[in-house]
Design goal:
- The chain has about 280 residues and is mainly alpha-helical.
- It is about 75% helix and about 0% strand.
- It has three domains: about 1-35, no CATH class; about 50-180, TerB-like (Orthogonal Bundle); about 180-205 and about 210-280, DnaJ domain (Helix Hairpins).
- It contains twelve helices and no strands.
Length: about 280
């Protein structure tokens, strides 16, 4: 209700009755958003046209694959592992036909010597400047590409630092994100090995092995926490990370719908780490 009243008042001050009508509508949308999760439904995103949203999604899509291609060639040539990682990424997104061709074209463009990384990132940031969660996810995707072979080469790290700098992400937070992803990568691999081991024991009708203790340290690292984190710290970090990676919110801000799977997988990793810590406490 307060949103409508304030909207009418301010609208009338600046645009008389037309302004009051517009203010009423904006106030109505604001009140409606407050009853839900304002960020989850896209906040003021609903006031932009569908074409504007589609343009941002197209820019995120093309920029993401172009920078991935550039990072993949940071060592002078694109390795077979990087090609497999890019292909797996496209498979995960369910890209087929024209969409897959666009992703491949952008990836190839990023590999070209004349590709200007700084200009591409600066242009990208201008469009997504106020959508920090998307900027962070963009960087996380690039880290995922660089880390696809299980380790981070010096050239790849230098490029990632540049991407982070151009996005306006501090060096301290870059190190935090990188450390979190490395922990996420290790934790996911360990969980997969453990699940496979349990399945093998079950098939052989043997007693299942207990989960290794060192997973607790890795699970904390997935949430960006140290080993001395309290239960309150764990809950706070979990809620913050889940809010940052909420797929519906990110799509409403400009994440291509094809890339929802990326956000979902990250949310699942965060959820898995949190559930593990709850059981371990």
């Amino acid at each position: 209700m307060w949103g409508k009243l304030l909207g009418i008042c301010f609208g009338f001050m600046f645009g008389r009755w037309i302004g009051a009508i517009l203010g009423f509508w904006l106030g109505h949308m604001f009140d409606k958003s407050l009853k839900q999760n304002f960020d989850k439904v896209g906040g003021f995103q609903g006031f932009f046209s569908g074409d504007d949203l589609h343009q941002r999604q197209a820019l995120f899509f093309s920029s993401c694959f172009a920078v991935m291609g550039h990072i993949a060639k940071s060592n002078g040539r694109v390795s077979e592992i990087h090609i497999q990682a890019a292909t797996a990424f496209m498979d995960e997104m369910g890209l087929h036909g024209e969409n897959r061709q666009e992703a491949q074209n952008a990836f190839r463009a990023g590999k070209e010597p004349e590709f200007k990384l700084k200009e591409a990132i600066v242009d990208f940031k201008e469009v997504f400047a106020r959508r920090y969660d998307l900027l962070q996810l963009f960087l996380e995707i690039q880290i995922q590409m660089a880390f696809s072979d299980g380790h981070l080469a010096a050239q790849e790290k230098q490029l990632l630092q540049k991407v982070s700098q151009y996005l306006g992400i501090s060096a301290t937070h870059f190190r935090f994100i990188l450390k979190r992803y490395q922990a996420e990568f290790s934790f996911r691999q360990q969980q997969q090995r453990f699940q496979q081991s349990q399945q093998n024991h079950y098939q052989r009708k043997e007693r299942a092995q207990p989960e290794p203790e060192f997973s607790k340290t890795q699970a904390l690292a997935v949430l960006g926490l140290q080993s001395d984190a309290s239960e309150k710290d764990i809950k706070r970090a979990y809620r913050k990370l889940m809010a940052q990676h909420h797929p519906d919110k990110l799509v409403s801000q400009g994440l291509p719908e094809h890339m929802m799977e990326v956000a979902k997988r990250k949310s699942q990793d965060i959820q898995s780490a949190y559930e593990f810590l709850k059981k371990a406490s």
